[in-house]
Design brief:
single chain, 142 residues, alpha/beta, Maf protein, six-stranded mixed beta sheet, globular, disordered C terminus
Length: 142
Amino acid sequence: MKIVVASGNPVKIKAVEQGFNPFFNVGEILAVDVPSGVSDQPFTEAETVAGARNRVNEAKQAVKDADFWVGIEGGVEAMGDTLAAFAWVVVSSAGKSGEARPVTWENSSTGVRRYGTGYSQRQGFRQNKFKAKEWSRWPAYA
């Protein structure tokens, strides 16, 4: 079985590996660094899911002979005084695809203000500027 991850991000590659391994005999996971076609930090749900869809479509063009193509895009959206951070995952195979928003967490109002000054999601978490529930469980931000 050949799975294409539509990103060179090692965290996304590991997430796909951990997601598929319990259910399939994964032979090869191939990472292809393709553009998402959206902002580096998507700031709405619509832009985030579009980025995941775009990644899958670009990966299909780059590697045509796979069993699955997976696009993962992380995004944020202001929700009142907080900033919601989330991901969209799109998985496609021959003639079928599925989409899911598997996780959402809230950041403090400080996070909303910092995004206005150019902080990225990763910078904010690494510098411990945002307070998110159990964020340390996510290897990308530890």
